[in-house]
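Project outcomes to date are best conveyed with an example. Our students and postdoctoral researchers have been running inverse folding experiments weekly, and each run begins with a structure described purely in tokens. The record below, which covers 362 residues, was selected by the lab manager from last quarter's runs and is presented without edits.
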């Protein structure tokens, strides 16, 4: 009698650098160590890009307006971001990952999934692989990393938060379903604030609540995400670690010191955004067909306008012309504009990108 061998249980590691940007700044400037630090602009319209753990104890976090952060932590130190340095360190970290597995799916500069089911070191225990990787990252970069280990991506991501900073945790196949049942859905990776509120309106606040809903209900109320939610409520996530994940868009945006009400002034702000985006595209042999302009108003409401061309956009002037027409389509502005963004999508490149999306900060 032939017995079919079951596929091996996957061993997925999610590595997440601890307070990455802020930790790089504290590493490179010993005078900043142990102090509450925010990477970002301190101006009235500035935003925190990253916060050190010392700052987080005051409630400071990324994406928080700088004035709010300063109010929460009067002694907060602001440091301008150095993205080129962060990219260099990220490259060092990815080289370490590559010593263990070719199956690496970066999510951003500071985190990635690794499939180590069959790894280059022949190591059988994934927790030991994670320990080695974290130790090597510390030795090479001087920075701490946390890790989550599990049998799928969703649980590995959740596990990496359990013992932060500078720790790791494992969620086994035996414990996975129970772990999910006891977790608030608002803490699920992939469930944002808006989705969490929609779930709450249907009586879904925990993983157990989510598990109680049939697939048809979840598809009816959450569309294409329904099957995903149905699976993760049971500790099931079949998504593969994708080392060839294709970049979806390249974008840049800027928040203004003073709100803009005049169309001509707003148009002038498009050029540096377009130039930055196109410079990146040229350096990476990327072409695009779709131009999108994002407009955020003084009350934080926003609008987007897009145009897709039959052939790829060819230079900055072409993109600027398209962006200006898109911006003019919402003029006169219903409220003053506090932020503009330009994004290129429908990308095509000769080289495989390992970043699903890039946001270029000004």
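After processing, the design step wrote out the following sequence:
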């Amino acid at each position: 009698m032939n017995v079919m061998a079951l596929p091996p249980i996957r061993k997925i590691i999610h590595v997440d650098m601890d307070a990455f940007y802020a930790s790089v700044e504290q590493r490179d400037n010993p005078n900043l160590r142990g102090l509450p630090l925010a990477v970002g602009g301190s101006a009235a319209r500035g935003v925190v890009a990253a916060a050190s753990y010392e700052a987080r104890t005051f409630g400071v976090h990324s994406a928080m307006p700088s004035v709010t952060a300063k109010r929460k932590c009067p002694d907060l130190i602001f440091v301008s971001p150095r993205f080129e340095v962060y990219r260099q360190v990220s490259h060092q970290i990815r080289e370490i990952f590559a010593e263990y597995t070719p199956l690496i799916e970066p999510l951003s500069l500071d985190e990635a999934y690794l499939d180590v089911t069959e790894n280059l070191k022949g190591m059988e225990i994934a927790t030991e692989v994670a320990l080695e990787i974290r130790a090597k990252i510390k030795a090479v970069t001087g920075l701490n990393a946390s890790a989550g280990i599990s049998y799928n991506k969703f649980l590995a991501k959740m596990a990496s938060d359990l013992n932060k900073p500078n720790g790791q945790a494992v969620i086994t196949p035996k414990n996975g379903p129970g772990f999910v049942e006891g977790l608030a859905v608002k803490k699920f990776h992939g469930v944002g604030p808006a989705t969490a509120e929609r779930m709450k309106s249907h009586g879904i606040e925990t993983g157990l609540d989510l598990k109680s809903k049939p697939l048809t209900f979840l598809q009816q109320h959450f569309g294409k995400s329904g099957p995903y939610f149905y699976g993760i409520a049971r500790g099931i996530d079949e998504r593969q670690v994708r080392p060839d994940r294709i970049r979806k868009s390249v974008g840049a945006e800027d928040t203004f010191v003073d709100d803009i009400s005049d169309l001509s002034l707003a148009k002038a702000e498009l050029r540096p955004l377009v130039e930055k985006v196109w410079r990146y595209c040229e350096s990476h042999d990327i072409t695009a067909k779709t131009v999108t302009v994002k407009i955020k108003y003084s009350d934080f409401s926003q609008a987007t306008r897009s145009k897709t061309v039959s052939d790829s956009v060819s230079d900055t002037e072409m993109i600027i012309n398209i962006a200006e027409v898109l911006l003019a389509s919402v003029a006169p502005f219903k409220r003053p504009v506090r932020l503009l963004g330009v994004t290129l999508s429908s990308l095509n490149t000769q080289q495989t990108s390992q970043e699903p999306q890039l946001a270029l900060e000004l």
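The mean pLDDT is 89. Residues 83-98 form the longest helix (16 residues). The training component of this project remains on track.
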